[in-house]
Amino acid sequence: MRHLLIRTIRRRVVGTLAAGLLSTIGVVAPALAAPAAAPVAPRLADGLALTPPMGFNNWNSTHCRAEFNESMVKGIADILVEKGLRDAGYQYVNLDDCWALPSRDANGRLVPDPVRFPGGIEAVADYVHSKGLKLGIYTSAGTRTCDSAGFPGALGHEYGDAQQFADWGVDYLKYDNCNNQGVDAEQRYTTMRDALAAASRSTGRPIVYSICEWGENKPWEWAPDVGHLWRTTGDISDNWGSMLSILKQNLPLAPYAGPGHWNDPDMLEVGNGGMTDTEYRTHFSMWSMVAAPLLIGSDLRKASPATLGIVGDKEVVAVDQDPLGKQGTVVSSEGGRWVVAKEMKDGSRAVALFNETGSAQRIATTAAAVGLPQASGYTLRDLWRHRSYNTAGTISATVPAHGTFLVRVTADRHWAQHPPAVDLALDGAPLVEAGRTATLTSAVTDLGRTPAGRVSVSLTGPEGWTVRAVSGTSARVLRTGRTLRTSWRVTAPRGTETGPYALTLRTAYRSPTGASAQSLVPVTATVVVPPPAGTSYLGDLPWISAANGYGPVERNTSNGESAAGDGHPLTLGGVVYAKGLGAHAGSDIAYYTGGSCGTVTADVGVDDEKGGAGTVAFEIWADGTKAASTGVLTNAMPAQPLSADVAGARVVRLVVTDGGDGIDSDHADWADAKLSC
Question: pLDDT at residue 24 above 50?
Fold first, then answer.
C-alpha cells in the first residue's frame, strides 16, 4: 500500500530485486536472463484471474483523506460504466486502507467506519455489483495495516476476516505486508489463502487474492501456489524514475507469469500529474506488455480526456488481456533503446519500441528477432494511432524522449491491403544556437513490401524560425529499403531563450492501390548557448535536460525528493559543499559543451542526509561514449573524486544509476562539479 508519509520506511523495499535492475542508460545486463530457479507451477486451479485483473484502486488519488467514502466509491463505479471503462475490461472497484474503524468489536470482528461507509461494506458491494462490477477490499498480513492510524490487520484473524469479506460480497482482496511481526511471509500469505478458500466454500463467492508482499521474499518463487498475483517491488510513485525502476525490476520475471498467476508491478499512476502524457502512454504500454494487473490509481472524477484515452484504449488493453498470458520479454536494450516483445495467442507479436533516454531515438528490430516466422510480408498495426501498414520485416520508428511505439505484428496473407510502413527520422540531436544556422537531415525510408509513391516530406518550426530545405523534398517512388534524404537549414532568431522548442517532421505518400498515408514525428529542438571560457560550476550553468528519480535535480543543494528547493546543503562525509548538483537515481543531466570544453570534475557520493542508506554509481558521458565512472558507492564511503576528458564532445551527460538495488534513498551529490572550457 502506498503511504507517502511513511515512505522513508517503506521505500527500502523498492530495491530488493538487485539482479533485475538495469543501468539507466539501458545496457543489457545479466539480469535479463531467465531466473535460475524453475517457476512454481500454480495449483490453485480455481479459474480466477485468467487474465490480469483490471479495475480501480483509490489509494493513489485519495489516500486516507475524508473524501474516501461510500459516495466516492459509488461514484467511481458509475464513471467506470459511463465512460466505457467497464466495457474496456475494468471490473474491480477496490477499497484500499482506512475503510475500517481502528478497533475490532467485542467479538473480534472488523467494523466499517460508519462515517465513511454508513451503509456498511455490504451495501457498497451490492451497488457495485448492480453496475456489473466487482468489489475489492484491503487488509494487511500483520497486526495493523500500513496507514499511520493503525487499522486492524488480519494476522491471527485470517479465517474470521475472510469470512466477513465473503459475507459482505467482496470479490478481491489486497493483502499488504505491514506490521508482520517477523512471521514468515509464505506462512502468513498461505494462511490467508486457506482462509479465503474456506470462506468461498461456505458462501459460494470466489475471491481473487492479491499478495502485496513488496517482493521482499521473492514471492514469484512460491506465490503461484498461494495467490493470483503478487507485488514484485515496493510502491510506485508518480514520477518517471520510480516507474522506470519498477519496470526494469519486473521485466526479468516473465517466466513466472501466466493465467491465474501474475507479476504485479503496482497500480497505474496515469493521470495523477507527475508525468507527461507521453510518459503515461509509456507507463500504460509497458504495463500492458508485461501482462500487469491494470488498476487505475488516478481520480476518475477529475480524469482528463487524455487520461481516459490512455487507460481506455482497447487495442492496448488487448495486449495486456491476451488469453495466452505471456509476459513480454526483452529483445534488446542498448543505449536505453528498448525492444520488448510479447507473444500473443493468435501467433502475432506485440512489440514495444521504448525510448528510455531524454532525446528522440531511432529504435529498430525485425520480425524474426521478435519471434515471427519468415513470411513474404507482415501487417504492422500501430496500436495507439489505430492504423495498419505492411512491412517486409523491419520494425522501426523514431521514438520521442520517454516515449513508446507500440505495434502488433502479424504474419498474415492480407498484408498487401495496407500501405507500406515508412520510417521517418531526423538524424542527430537538433541543438541550435540562437542566431546561427544548424543543418539537420531527415530520412524517409520505405519499410514495406510494396513501394511508396508520390513521397513528400516537410519540416516546420516555431513562429519566427527559418526552416529551409536545401535538397529534394519529394520522390516519385520509394521501393523497399530505399530512402529519401533531405537537408534542412534551421535558424532560431537572435535572442531566442534557451530551452526546448517543437519542430514537426511530416511525410505523405500513396500506396500502390492509391490510398494516401502519412506519418508525423514531433521533434524537440533545443536552443543552447556555448559554455563560457574558463572553469565554471555546473550548478551555475543551464542544462539541456535533467531527468531524476524523485523530485527535480537541485542546483547547489541536495535532492529533497519532492518540490524544487526542498533540499539541504550538499554534504559528503561530513564535508559541506557550497556548489554542485543534488540528484536522485536514476538521473541524467545533459549539458551543451559545443566541442569547446576539456574536463569535468566533481566529488561524488551519497549525501549524508540519508544516514546509512543509498547505493549509487556515477557516470560521465561525452556524446555517446562513457568517459568516466565510479562503480557502486554506498553512504558509508567518503566522497570520491571523479574526472573525465570530454574534449570535442558537443554534449556531456552526468548519469547516476541506482547501484543495482532499486532507487531507495539514492541521494546522489555531484559536489563541487566543474566544467573547464
Answer: no
